[in-house]
Specification:
Helix 3 packs across helix 4. This protein has a domain of 54 residues. It is elongated, with a radius of gyration of 22 Å. The longest helix has 16 residues. The chain is mainly α. It contains 4 helices and no strands.
Length: 91
């Protein structure tokens, strides 16, 4: 039964109907598991290295997707980024 018909039967405006967010697809869940495994082996790998690792094993994934999934899982590289924007204490 369509959403339009359901809202009509309940005497609701269609604009008041809200569909909740869908979950992640099976493919994304599989990629998230692979990303987490690689992250646990190499926590200093960022999105580029993990994306390259997935491409080596035949998973067609780009860096933006890896970044989104890593942000969703709360994973972040522990690589040293430096303190280039901080002044030296004597200055």
């Amino acid at each position: 039964m369509s959403i339009r018909l359901q809202c009509g039967l309940l005497k609701l405006h269609r604009s008041s109907y809200y569909r909740g967010p869908r979950g992640e697809s099976e493919e994304n869940l599989k990629l998230m598991r692979l990303i987490e495994e690689e992250y646990l082996r190499h926590p200093f790998f960022g999105t580029r290295k993990i994306g390259d690792h997935l491409l080596q094993f035949g998973h067609g994934v780009n860096r933006k997707r890896v970044r989104r999934l890593m942000q969703l899982m709360g994973l972040k590289s522990i690589a040293y980024l430096g303190f280039t924007s901080q002044l030296h204490p004597r200055r």
